[in-house]
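dumping this here so i dont lose it
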């Protein structure tokens, strides 16, 4: 309201000076021009729909674009910093913005990376490349116990709740997903109308059971069955832990728990909303697997999966043993990397708890392969996926498909101002302030999300074709190489250990045998660990 009043007052003063310039001394021409120009710019900024920054900050918002035009590095330092305080790769950020706008995403003069540095990774291209397929690849989600499988895109919207993001941001993401035919994960904040705009939805259920909970905070099977029957809900994701804050639950401050959010989450309005660290519906791997089977039955046979940030390999193996013991299992597992976070977690957790996506992904993939379960369980990768290169690398490391949160936020206008936790997001993406959220035009930003996903998946398929690969199943660790030093580089197949199908059941390798023995299907606590107290 203040910005509108300011522009209106400026316009009125400008009009008055124009009148004085016409009927009075010629000296009024200078102030008339000086006031009319910003007034016209301000009015245009308020009515245009392309730039959210200008809708929230008319006239002065142009300073951001001036910095960008003068020197991109200034914009990066003063305006666009990474969510964790470190610079986000400028090449990748430029790709996201350009692809979202539907323009070219190339940079002049090649890479800015030092390819001689240890840790540099690259894909192996083929001397006999193939043509990319005419249609994007899809991944069939649904094991032997699933009666309503779903074909997942290679890149989808990762879990972001209503509360973390504004309703307009979620509507834009859903519009883009609907147009592009990719999935939209709800996050643990409940299934809301902002997620049900027509796109395929992955309904995430966390330890707070928001949207499907009893008055005392436990899981409500009747509410779940009713909402899971919604046509747009294609998959159910049971969240054990999140990459940004593994081992703790989420907190939504009382000031942000509006009546609308309280209604969708099933919690009191105006009170702090806390998601417990652990689930109350189960406490052991075997109970977890039984609960997954129950959710599948209640949902009418839809795919049900588990999402987690990997901490202990023993825990992953315990889940595998529980699946073998019960004879049922999840249809998919989403591995969340510890790299994530949009100011929703303590810094110590973001920096020091949980495995990075690469390590967690390969751990889960190898555990499933070694247990003989990989053929029936699909694996999703979530964590800093922003380019076609990321998609291909994650598939090589063990994933079947990927999810992106940060990149999707940037596609709908996020400028990484690091104001997510203050409710003062300048572009209306991560705020519950309706005046700020109004700046985000749903139609325009939905189109941007669609264009970004489409271009990124097309680039992933183009990369695979350049590698001589006509189907993602042909990708192997031999096709991703890493520089170990200035004089040595090797493939992932040589650097890392890859288990054979059923190897853990037949004869576990020396490096896995201790964890395999300690894994207990009836306990998440590593067997054989002494209590030091």
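and the seq i came up w/
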């Amino acid at each position: 309201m203040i910005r509108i009043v300011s522009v209106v007052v400026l316009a009125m003063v400008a009009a008055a000076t124009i009148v004085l310039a016409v009927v009075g001394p010629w000296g009024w021409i200078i102030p008339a021009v000086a006031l009319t120009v910003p007034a016209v710019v301000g009015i245009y900024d308020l009515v245009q729909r392309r730039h959210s920054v200008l809708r929230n900050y008319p006239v002065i918002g142009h300073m951001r674009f001036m910095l960008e035009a003068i020197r991109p590095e200034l914009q990066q330092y003063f305006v666009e910093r990474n969510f964790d305080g470190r610079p986000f790769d400028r090449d990748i950020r430029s790709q996201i913005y350009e692809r979202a706008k539907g323009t070219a995403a190339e940079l002049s003069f090649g890479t800015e990376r030092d390819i001689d540095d240890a840790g540099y990774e690259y894909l192996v291209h083929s001397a006999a490349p193939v043509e990319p397929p005419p249609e994007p690849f899809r991944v069939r989600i649904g094991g032997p116990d699933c009666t309503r499988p779903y074909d997942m895109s290679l890149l989808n919207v990762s879990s972001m709740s209503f509360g973390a993001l504004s309703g307009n941001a979620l509507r834009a993401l859903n519009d883009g997903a609907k147009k592009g035919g990719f999935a939209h994960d709800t996050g643990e904040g409940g299934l809301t109308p902002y997620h049900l705009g027509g796109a395929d939805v992955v309904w995430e259920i966390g330890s707070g059971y928001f949207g499907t909970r009893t008055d005392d905070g436990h899981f409500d099977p009747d509410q779940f069955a009713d909402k899971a029957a919604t046509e747009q809900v294609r998959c159910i994701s049971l969240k054990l832990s999140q990459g940004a804050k593994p081992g703790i639950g989420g907190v939504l401050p009382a000031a942000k728990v509006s009546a609308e959010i309280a209604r969708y989450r099933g919690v009191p309005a105006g009170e702090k909303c806390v998601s417990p660290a652990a689930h109350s519906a189960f406490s052991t791997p075997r109970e977890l697997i039984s609960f997954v089977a129950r959710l599948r039955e209640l949902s009418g046979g839809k795919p049900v999966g588990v999402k987690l940030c990997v901490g202990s390999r023993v825990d992953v193996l315990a889940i595998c043993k529980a699946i073998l013991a019960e004879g049922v299992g999840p249809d998919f597992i989403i591995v969340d990397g510890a790299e994530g976070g949009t100011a929703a977690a303590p810094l110590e957790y973001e920096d020091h708890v949980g495995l990075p996506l690469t390590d967690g992904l390969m751990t889960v993939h190898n555990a499933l392969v070694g247990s003989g379960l990989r053929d029936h369980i699909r694996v999703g990768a979530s964590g800093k996926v922003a380019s076609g290169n990321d998609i291909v690398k994650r598939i090589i490391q063990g994933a079947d498909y990927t999810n992106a949160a940060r990149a999707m936020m940037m596609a709908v206008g996020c400028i990484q101002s690091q104001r997510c936790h203050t409710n003062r997001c300048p572009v209306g993406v991560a705020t519950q302030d309706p005046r700020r959220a109004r700046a985000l035009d749903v139609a325009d930003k939905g189109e941007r999300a669609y264009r970004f996903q489409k271009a990124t998946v097309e680039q992933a398929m183009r990369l695979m074709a350049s590698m001589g690969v006509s189907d993602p199943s042909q990708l192997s660790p031999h096709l991703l190489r890493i520089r170990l030093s200035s004089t040595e580089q090797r493939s992932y197949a040589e650097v890392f250990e890859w288990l054979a199908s059923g190897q853990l059941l037949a004869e576990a390798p020396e490096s896995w045998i201790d964890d395999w023995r300690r894994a207990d299907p009836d306990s998440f606590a590593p067997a054989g660990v002494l209590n030091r107290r």
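The chain has two domains: 2-79, 138-507.
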